[in-house]
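ok so for the tutorial part 2 we go from a plain amino acid sequence to predicted structure tokens. step 1 is just haveing the sequence, like this:
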Amino acid sequence: GACCVLNVAVLFPEAITITWFLRRRFSDQQLDSLRARLKDLLTRTRWLDDEERLFVRVPCAFLFAKLRCMIHSVRPLLCRSITSTDPEVCHDAVAMAPLDGVPCVEMNLFQKQFIDTVYTELAGALEELGLDHRPRRLSAAVLTLLAEPGLVETFLSGGAVPIN
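step 2 — the prediction. this is what the tokens look like for a chain of 164 residues:
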């Protein structure tokens, strides 16, 4: 959970998967609570760039008790790419980032590069298929899909999906 104060970009298929998972795993009451957390996160971070988001340290809306990720099994590719070898070092690096601007987190670079390549290639494949390939913020994409599940059909038919 130490790195879960970053802006996370997702492609729409990732948001679809996460929303599908949430709808099957959580009750309506739990989803209402999540919607409120997502709205709060968006309000607090919408206009923050990556460095500013690190500075304010607003945690991801998908974290719950003891900083566990409720979507860990379907987490976004970019979350999968960050694999700190030492959570304490990750926490310290993120905490120090606003001071020197260069967070240095020890991680498996092969895995990071591999997953970054998968993300880029998936975006390229979506574009080639005429599907919406634009990245969007994780919280905004999931909140939008929870409110408008019909956007899945819009996406699959090649329509543009709003980026909130």
